[in-house]
Design brief:
Distance between the termini: 27 Å
Shape: globular
Order of helices and strands: EEHHHHHEEEEEEEEHEEHHHH
Helix content: 40-55%
Bound molecules: flavin-adenine dinucleotide
Number of helices: 10
Largest sheet: 4 strands, mixed
Structural class: alpha+beta
Radius of gyration: 21 Å
Protein backbone atom coordinates (compact mmCIF):
# COMPACT_ATOMS: atom_id res chain seq x y z
CA UNK A 1 0.00 0.00 0.00
CA UNK A 2 1.30 3.45 -0.94
CA UNK A 3 1.14 6.33 1.53
CA UNK A 4 1.42 9.73 -0.12
CA UNK A 5 2.86 12.79 1.59
CA UNK A 6 2.47 16.10 -0.22
CA UNK A 7 4.98 18.51 1.23
CA UNK A 8 5.48 22.16 0.33
CA UNK A 9 8.21 21.24 -2.18
CA UNK A 10 8.09 17.50 -2.74
CA UNK A 11 5.48 14.74 -3.05
CA UNK A 12 6.80 11.55 -1.51
CA UNK A 13 5.71 7.91 -1.43
CA UNK A 14 6.20 6.84 2.18
CA UNK A 15 6.15 3.27 3.55
CA UNK A 16 3.62 3.84 6.38
CA UNK A 17 0.95 6.28 7.54
CA UNK A 18 3.10 6.88 10.63
CA UNK A 19 5.93 8.12 8.40
CA UNK A 20 3.53 10.47 6.58
CA UNK A 21 2.59 12.04 9.94
CA UNK A 22 6.28 12.24 10.84
CA UNK A 23 7.12 14.11 7.62
CA UNK A 24 4.27 16.57 8.21
CA UNK A 25 5.43 17.21 11.77
CA UNK A 26 9.06 17.72 10.69
CA UNK A 27 8.18 20.04 7.79
CA UNK A 28 6.07 22.17 10.11
CA UNK A 29 8.81 22.33 12.76
CA UNK A 30 11.51 23.04 10.18
CA UNK A 31 9.68 25.93 8.54
CA UNK A 32 8.61 27.53 11.84
CA UNK A 33 11.70 26.92 14.00
CA UNK A 34 14.62 26.46 11.61
CA UNK A 35 14.20 28.25 8.27
CA UNK A 36 13.09 31.44 10.02
CA UNK A 37 16.39 31.91 11.87
CA UNK A 38 18.95 30.17 9.62
CA UNK A 39 20.32 33.29 7.90
CA UNK A 40 20.77 35.29 11.12
CA UNK A 41 22.35 32.44 13.08
CA UNK A 42 24.67 31.61 10.18
CA UNK A 43 25.77 35.27 9.99
CA UNK A 44 26.52 35.35 13.73
CA UNK A 45 27.93 31.76 13.81
CA UNK A 46 25.45 30.84 16.54
CA UNK A 47 25.22 27.11 17.25
CA UNK A 48 21.48 26.32 17.56
CA UNK A 49 21.79 23.94 20.53
CA UNK A 50 18.23 24.85 21.58
CA UNK A 51 16.81 23.80 18.18
CA UNK A 52 18.67 20.49 18.42
CA UNK A 53 17.27 19.98 21.93
CA UNK A 54 13.78 20.62 20.52
CA UNK A 55 14.42 18.07 17.73
CA UNK A 56 15.61 15.70 20.45
CA UNK A 57 12.35 16.14 22.35
CA UNK A 58 10.48 15.29 19.12
CA UNK A 59 12.41 12.02 18.93
CA UNK A 60 14.42 12.99 15.85
CA UNK A 61 17.85 12.35 17.42
CA UNK A 62 16.84 8.73 18.07
CA UNK A 63 14.90 8.14 14.87
CA UNK A 64 16.87 5.24 13.28
CA UNK A 65 17.68 3.41 16.54
CA UNK A 66 16.00 0.43 18.22
CA UNK A 67 12.76 1.04 20.09
CA UNK A 68 14.18 -1.18 22.86
CA UNK A 69 16.50 1.73 23.77
CA UNK A 70 13.90 4.44 23.19
CA UNK A 71 14.66 4.97 19.51
CA UNK A 72 12.11 5.62 16.77
CA UNK A 73 13.04 2.43 14.87
CA UNK A 74 12.37 4.10 11.54
CA UNK A 75 13.89 2.62 8.38
CA UNK A 76 16.70 4.61 6.75
CA UNK A 77 14.32 5.37 3.87
CA UNK A 78 12.27 7.45 6.32
CA UNK A 79 15.12 8.77 8.46
CA UNK A 80 16.87 10.24 5.42
CA UNK A 81 13.77 11.97 4.13
CA UNK A 82 13.33 13.58 7.55
CA UNK A 83 16.97 14.67 7.37
CA UNK A 84 16.40 16.10 3.88
CA UNK A 85 13.48 18.22 5.13
CA UNK A 86 15.60 19.55 8.01
CA UNK A 87 18.51 20.38 5.67
CA UNK A 88 16.12 22.10 3.24
CA UNK A 89 15.30 24.49 6.08
CA UNK A 90 18.84 24.79 7.50
CA UNK A 91 21.84 22.77 6.38
CA UNK A 92 23.83 23.20 9.62
CA UNK A 93 21.06 21.55 11.63
CA UNK A 94 20.81 18.72 9.10
CA UNK A 95 24.56 18.16 9.43
CA UNK A 96 24.25 18.16 13.23
CA UNK A 97 21.55 15.49 13.20
CA UNK A 98 23.49 13.40 10.68
CA UNK A 99 26.69 13.64 12.75
CA UNK A 100 24.75 12.69 15.88
CA UNK A 101 23.56 9.49 14.16
CA UNK A 102 27.16 8.85 13.06
CA UNK A 103 28.44 9.26 16.61
CA UNK A 104 25.87 6.76 17.99
CA UNK A 105 26.56 4.23 15.23
CA UNK A 106 29.52 2.48 16.93
CA UNK A 107 27.64 1.74 20.15
CA UNK A 108 24.35 0.87 18.39
CA UNK A 109 26.00 -1.53 15.91
CA UNK A 110 29.22 -2.74 17.56
CA UNK A 111 28.57 -2.31 21.30
CA UNK A 112 27.73 -5.28 23.52
CA UNK A 113 24.22 -5.68 24.88
CA UNK A 114 25.50 -4.55 28.27
CA UNK A 115 27.14 -1.42 26.78
CA UNK A 116 23.99 -0.50 24.85
CA UNK A 117 21.87 -0.90 27.96
CA UNK A 118 24.21 1.35 29.93
CA UNK A 119 24.59 4.23 27.48
CA UNK A 120 22.52 4.11 24.29
CA UNK A 121 19.16 5.22 25.69
CA UNK A 122 20.69 8.44 27.09
CA UNK A 123 22.61 9.12 23.84
CA UNK A 124 19.51 8.97 21.65
CA UNK A 125 16.95 10.38 24.08
CA UNK A 126 17.48 13.92 22.85
CA UNK A 127 19.32 15.73 25.64
CA UNK A 128 22.80 14.63 24.58
CA UNK A 129 24.68 15.39 21.38
CA UNK A 130 27.54 13.33 19.95
CA UNK A 131 30.62 13.85 17.79
CA UNK A 132 32.61 11.51 15.55
CA UNK A 133 36.41 11.82 15.78
CA UNK A 134 38.38 10.22 12.96
CA UNK A 135 40.31 12.98 11.15
CA UNK A 136 43.60 14.47 12.29
CA UNK A 137 45.54 17.30 10.70
CA UNK A 138 47.94 14.92 8.88
CA UNK A 139 45.40 12.12 8.27
CA UNK A 140 42.28 13.16 6.34
CA UNK A 141 41.63 11.01 3.28
CA UNK A 142 44.32 8.64 4.54
CA UNK A 143 42.40 8.17 7.79
CA UNK A 144 44.22 4.99 8.79
CA UNK A 145 47.39 7.07 9.31
CA UNK A 146 45.91 8.60 12.49
CA UNK A 147 48.23 8.88 15.47
CA UNK A 148 46.18 9.85 18.56
CA UNK A 149 47.54 7.31 20.99
CA UNK A 150 45.74 5.22 23.64
CA UNK A 151 48.00 3.38 26.09
CA UNK A 152 46.56 0.70 28.37
CA UNK A 153 47.06 1.48 32.06
CA UNK A 154 45.26 -1.07 34.27
CA UNK A 155 41.52 -0.78 33.65
CA UNK A 156 41.89 2.50 31.69
CA UNK A 157 43.36 3.80 28.46
CA UNK A 158 45.34 7.04 28.65
CA UNK A 159 44.60 8.94 25.43
CA UNK A 160 46.76 11.74 23.99
CA UNK A 161 46.64 13.47 20.62
CA UNK A 162 44.66 16.00 18.60
CA UNK A 163 41.65 15.29 16.39
CA UNK A 164 40.98 17.83 13.61
CA UNK A 165 37.85 19.17 11.92
CA UNK A 166 35.45 17.73 14.49
CA UNK A 167 31.80 18.76 14.03
CA UNK A 168 30.44 19.63 17.53
CA UNK A 169 34.06 19.75 18.79
CA UNK A 170 33.91 21.29 22.27
CA UNK A 171 30.08 21.18 22.28
CA UNK A 172 29.46 17.43 22.24
CA UNK A 173 28.39 15.42 25.28
CA UNK A 174 30.19 12.31 23.99
CA UNK A 175 32.77 11.46 21.33
CA UNK A 176 33.15 8.28 19.26
CA UNK A 177 36.92 8.53 18.88
CA UNK A 178 39.22 6.40 16.71
CA UNK A 179 42.56 6.06 18.50
CA UNK A 180 45.76 4.13 17.94
CA UNK A 181 46.25 1.21 20.33
CA UNK A 182 49.11 -0.40 18.36
CA UNK A 183 51.39 0.37 15.42
CA UNK A 184 49.71 -2.22 13.22
CA UNK A 185 48.36 0.25 10.61
CA UNK A 186 44.57 0.11 10.11
CA UNK A 187 44.46 -2.94 12.44
CA UNK A 188 45.98 -0.89 15.27
CA UNK A 189 42.96 1.44 15.58
CA UNK A 190 40.31 1.13 18.31
CA UNK A 191 37.03 2.99 18.78
CA UNK A 192 36.44 4.50 22.24
CA UNK A 193 33.26 6.13 23.51
CA UNK A 194 34.60 9.14 25.42
CA UNK A 195 32.60 11.26 27.84
CA UNK A 196 32.58 14.93 26.81
CA UNK A 197 33.31 16.01 30.38
CA UNK A 198 36.44 13.86 30.70
CA UNK A 199 39.40 15.46 32.48
CA UNK A 200 42.07 16.45 29.94
CA UNK A 201 39.63 16.80 27.03
CA UNK A 202 39.44 20.28 25.47
CA UNK A 203 38.83 21.98 22.13
CA UNK A 204 40.39 24.74 20.07
CA UNK A 205 38.63 27.88 18.77
CA UNK A 206 36.14 26.79 16.06
CA UNK A 207 37.36 27.11 12.45
CA UNK A 208 36.30 30.21 10.49
CA UNK A 209 34.71 28.54 7.47
CA UNK A 210 33.33 29.51 4.07
CA UNK A 211 29.82 28.51 5.21
CA UNK A 212 27.81 26.47 7.71
CA UNK A 213 29.34 28.53 10.51
CA UNK A 214 26.41 27.73 12.81
CA UNK A 215 27.81 24.19 12.80
CA UNK A 216 30.91 24.34 15.02
CA UNK A 217 34.02 22.58 13.66
CA UNK A 218 37.02 22.44 15.96
CA UNK A 219 40.12 20.52 16.93
CA UNK A 220 39.56 18.25 19.93
CA UNK A 221 42.60 17.84 22.16
CA UNK A 222 43.14 14.72 24.27
CA UNK A 223 45.72 15.42 26.98
CA UNK A 224 46.19 12.19 28.93
CA UNK A 225 42.45 11.53 29.02
CA UNK A 226 41.59 8.43 31.07
CA UNK A 227 38.97 6.25 29.34
CA UNK A 228 37.75 3.03 31.03
CA UNK A 229 38.42 -0.16 29.03
CA UNK A 230 34.70 -0.97 29.05
CA UNK A 231 34.28 1.97 26.66
CA UNK A 232 35.89 0.09 23.76
CA UNK A 233 33.28 -0.18 20.97
CA UNK A 234 33.75 -3.45 19.09
CA UNK A 235 37.14 -5.12 19.44
CA UNK A 236 40.56 -3.68 20.29
CA UNK A 237 42.15 -3.17 16.86
CA UNK A 238 38.74 -3.29 15.14
CA UNK A 239 38.14 0.47 15.21
CA UNK A 240 38.85 1.14 11.56
CA UNK A 241 36.16 -1.34 10.53
CA UNK A 242 33.76 0.45 12.90
CA UNK A 243 34.78 3.84 11.44
CA UNK A 244 34.24 2.75 7.83
CA UNK A 245 30.89 1.08 8.57
CA UNK A 246 29.74 4.26 10.30
CA UNK A 247 30.81 6.29 7.25
CA UNK A 248 28.82 4.06 4.87
CA UNK A 249 25.67 5.03 6.78
CA UNK A 250 26.84 8.59 7.42
CA UNK A 251 27.38 9.24 3.72
CA UNK A 252 23.70 8.59 3.13
CA UNK A 253 22.98 11.31 5.69
CA UNK A 254 25.24 13.73 3.83
CA UNK A 255 23.53 12.76 0.55
CA UNK A 256 20.12 13.58 2.07
CA UNK A 257 21.49 16.89 3.37
CA UNK A 258 22.79 17.69 -0.13
CA UNK A 259 19.39 16.99 -1.67
CA UNK A 260 17.67 19.16 0.95
CA UNK A 261 20.03 22.05 0.29
CA UNK A 262 19.67 21.67 -3.49
CA UNK A 263 15.87 21.58 -3.16
CA UNK A 264 15.97 24.82 -1.16
CA UNK A 265 18.08 26.47 -3.88
CA UNK A 266 15.77 25.16 -6.62
CA UNK A 267 12.70 26.48 -4.77
CA UNK A 268 14.29 29.91 -4.26
CA UNK A 269 15.43 30.16 -7.90
CA UNK A 270 12.06 29.04 -9.27
CA UNK A 271 10.12 31.53 -7.13
CA UNK A 272 12.46 34.34 -8.17
CA UNK A 273 12.34 33.43 -11.87
CA UNK A 274 8.52 33.52 -11.87
CA UNK A 275 8.45 36.87 -10.08
CA UNK A 276 11.29 38.69 -11.86
CA UNK A 277 10.36 40.53 -15.09
CA UNK A 278 12.78 41.54 -17.85
CA UNK A 279 11.97 42.49 -21.44
CA UNK A 280 8.33 42.72 -20.28
CA UNK A 281 8.13 39.02 -19.31
CA UNK A 282 8.81 36.77 -16.39
CA UNK A 283 12.42 35.50 -16.78
CA UNK A 284 11.07 31.94 -16.23
CA UNK A 285 9.57 32.24 -19.71
CA UNK A 286 13.00 32.55 -21.33
CA UNK A 287 14.22 29.17 -22.51
CA UNK A 288 17.73 29.94 -21.26
CA UNK A 289 16.37 30.21 -17.73
CA UNK A 290 13.71 27.49 -17.87
CA UNK A 291 16.25 24.96 -19.21
CA UNK A 292 18.54 25.82 -16.28
CA UNK A 293 15.63 25.23 -13.88
CA UNK A 294 14.73 21.98 -15.67
CA UNK A 295 18.28 20.68 -15.30
CA UNK A 296 18.34 21.70 -11.62
CA UNK A 297 15.05 19.90 -10.91
CA UNK A 298 16.28 16.80 -12.75
CA UNK A 299 19.53 16.73 -10.77
CA UNK A 300 17.70 17.09 -7.43
CA UNK A 301 15.21 14.33 -8.22
CA UNK A 302 17.87 11.97 -9.58
CA UNK A 303 19.97 12.45 -6.44
CA UNK A 304 16.94 11.82 -4.22
CA UNK A 305 16.11 8.62 -6.10
CA UNK A 306 19.71 7.42 -5.68
CA UNK A 307 19.90 7.97 -1.92
CA UNK A 308 16.48 6.33 -1.47
CA UNK A 309 17.60 3.32 -3.49
CA UNK A 310 20.73 2.97 -1.35
CA UNK A 311 18.66 3.41 1.83
CA UNK A 312 16.23 0.66 0.77
CA UNK A 313 19.17 -1.72 0.19
CA UNK A 314 20.40 -0.91 3.70
CA UNK A 315 16.93 -1.38 5.18
CA UNK A 316 16.74 -4.79 3.47
CA UNK A 317 20.05 -5.81 5.07
CA UNK A 318 21.84 -5.91 1.70
CA UNK A 319 25.32 -4.47 0.93
CA UNK A 320 24.91 -0.77 0.23
CA UNK A 321 28.37 0.83 0.69
CA UNK A 322 29.09 1.42 -2.98
CA UNK A 323 25.57 2.78 -3.57
CA UNK A 324 25.97 5.06 -0.54
CA UNK A 325 29.19 6.43 -2.05
CA UNK A 326 27.37 7.01 -5.37
CA UNK A 327 24.50 8.75 -3.56
CA UNK A 328 26.93 10.99 -1.65
CA UNK A 329 28.85 11.80 -4.83
CA UNK A 330 25.77 12.50 -6.96
CA UNK A 331 23.84 14.42 -4.31
CA UNK A 332 26.67 16.69 -3.24
CA UNK A 333 27.82 17.38 -6.81
CA UNK A 334 24.16 18.16 -7.61
CA UNK A 335 24.00 20.49 -4.59
CA UNK A 336 27.09 22.37 -5.81
CA UNK A 337 25.78 22.68 -9.38
CA UNK A 338 22.21 23.57 -8.40
CA UNK A 339 23.25 26.21 -5.86
CA UNK A 340 25.67 27.72 -8.39
CA UNK A 341 22.90 27.94 -10.98
CA UNK A 342 20.49 29.38 -8.40
CA UNK A 343 22.87 32.32 -7.89
CA UNK A 344 22.97 32.75 -11.67
CA UNK A 345 19.18 32.82 -11.98
CA UNK A 346 18.95 35.54 -9.33
CA UNK A 347 21.51 37.63 -11.25
CA UNK A 348 22.97 40.48 -9.18
CA UNK A 349 20.51 39.77 -6.38
CA UNK A 350 21.96 36.27 -6.13
CA UNK A 351 25.35 37.71 -5.28
CA UNK A 352 24.00 39.67 -2.30
CA UNK A 353 23.13 38.55 1.21
CA UNK A 354 19.58 39.87 0.74
CA UNK A 355 18.69 36.44 -0.67
CA UNK A 356 19.73 33.00 0.62
CA UNK A 357 21.15 31.77 -2.73
CA UNK A 358 24.72 32.93 -1.98
CA UNK A 359 24.59 31.18 1.42
CA UNK A 360 23.35 27.95 -0.16
CA UNK A 361 26.23 28.18 -2.68
CA UNK A 362 28.82 28.61 0.11
CA UNK A 363 27.25 25.81 2.16
CA UNK A 364 27.16 23.30 -0.70
CA UNK A 365 30.95 23.17 -1.04
CA UNK A 366 31.59 21.48 2.29
CA UNK A 367 29.37 18.54 1.36
CA UNK A 368 31.81 17.59 -1.41
CA UNK A 369 34.57 17.39 1.24
CA UNK A 370 33.17 15.83 4.44
CA UNK A 371 32.87 12.10 5.21
CA UNK A 372 35.30 11.33 2.41
CA UNK A 373 35.90 13.81 -0.40
CA UNK A 374 34.16 13.10 -3.68
CA UNK A 375 37.49 11.83 -5.05
CA UNK A 376 37.47 9.25 -2.24
CA UNK A 377 33.85 8.31 -3.08
CA UNK A 378 34.99 7.58 -6.64
CA UNK A 379 37.75 5.36 -5.21
CA UNK A 380 35.16 3.44 -3.14
CA UNK A 381 32.89 3.01 -6.19
CA UNK A 382 35.75 2.07 -8.50
CA UNK A 383 37.11 -0.52 -6.06
CA UNK A 384 33.66 -2.10 -5.69
CA UNK A 385 33.33 -2.33 -9.47
CA UNK A 386 36.64 -4.19 -9.64
CA UNK A 387 35.48 -6.76 -7.03
CA UNK A 388 33.49 -9.91 -7.78
CA UNK A 389 29.80 -8.95 -7.67
CA UNK A 390 28.47 -8.80 -4.09
CA UNK A 391 25.19 -7.10 -4.82
CA UNK A 392 26.22 -3.61 -3.63
C1 LIG B 1 33.35 21.48 7.99
C2 LIG B 1 34.02 20.15 8.17
C3 LIG B 1 33.51 19.26 9.11
C4 LIG B 1 34.15 18.04 9.32
N1 LIG B 1 33.67 17.20 10.31
C5 LIG B 1 34.37 16.07 10.62
C6 LIG B 1 33.98 15.25 11.75
O1 LIG B 1 32.99 15.52 12.43
N2 LIG B 1 34.76 14.19 12.07
C7 LIG B 1 35.86 13.87 11.36
O2 LIG B 1 36.52 12.88 11.70
N3 LIG B 1 36.27 14.61 10.27
C8 LIG B 1 35.54 15.70 9.92
N4 LIG B 1 35.92 16.49 8.83
C9 LIG B 1 37.13 16.12 8.10
C10 LIG B 1 36.86 15.64 6.68
O3 LIG B 1 36.35 14.33 6.73
C11 LIG B 1 38.18 15.76 5.92
O4 LIG B 1 38.39 17.14 5.69
C12 LIG B 1 38.16 14.99 4.60
O5 LIG B 1 38.13 13.61 4.83
C13 LIG B 1 39.37 15.32 3.73
O6 LIG B 1 40.55 15.28 4.46
P1 LIG B 1 41.59 16.50 4.36
O7 LIG B 1 40.85 17.75 4.63
O8 LIG B 1 42.75 16.19 5.23
O9 LIG B 1 42.05 16.55 2.85
P2 LIG B 1 43.20 15.66 2.16
O10 LIG B 1 43.02 14.24 2.51
O11 LIG B 1 44.53 16.30 2.45
O12 LIG B 1 42.85 15.85 0.63
C14 LIG B 1 43.21 17.02 -0.12
C15 LIG B 1 42.78 16.78 -1.57
O13 LIG B 1 43.47 15.63 -2.10
C16 LIG B 1 42.51 14.71 -2.60
N5 LIG B 1 43.00 13.34 -2.38
C17 LIG B 1 43.55 12.82 -1.25
N6 LIG B 1 43.86 11.53 -1.43
C18 LIG B 1 43.49 11.22 -2.69
C19 LIG B 1 43.55 10.03 -3.50
N7 LIG B 1 44.03 8.89 -3.01
N8 LIG B 1 43.09 10.09 -4.76
C20 LIG B 1 42.57 11.25 -5.27
N9 LIG B 1 42.48 12.41 -4.57
C21 LIG B 1 42.94 12.38 -3.31
C22 LIG B 1 41.24 14.98 -1.82
O14 LIG B 1 40.08 14.52 -2.52
C23 LIG B 1 41.29 16.49 -1.70
O15 LIG B 1 40.77 17.07 -2.87
C24 LIG B 1 35.29 17.69 8.57
C25 LIG B 1 35.77 18.58 7.60
C26 LIG B 1 35.15 19.81 7.40
C27 LIG B 1 35.71 20.75 6.36
Amino acid sequence: MVHVWKGASVTRLMPTEESVDLMAMVEDFASRELASRASDDEASATFPRDALAALGRLGILGLPFDAAYGGGEQPYEVTLQVLEEIARAWLSVGISVSVHYLSCFALANFGTEEQRERWLADMIAGDLLGAYCLSESHSGSDAAALSTRAVLDGDHYRVSGTKAWITHGGRADFYSAMVRTSDDGARGITCLLVDGGSKGLSSATPEHKMGANASPTAQVIFDDVRVPVDRVMGSVGGGFTVALAALDAGRLGIAACGVGLAQAALDAATAYAIERKQFGRSIAEFQGVSFLLADMATAVNAARALYLDAARLKDAGLPFGSMAAMAKLAATDAAMKVTTDAVQILGGAGYTQDFPAERYFREAKVLQIVEGTNQIQRMVIGRALAQPRTGS
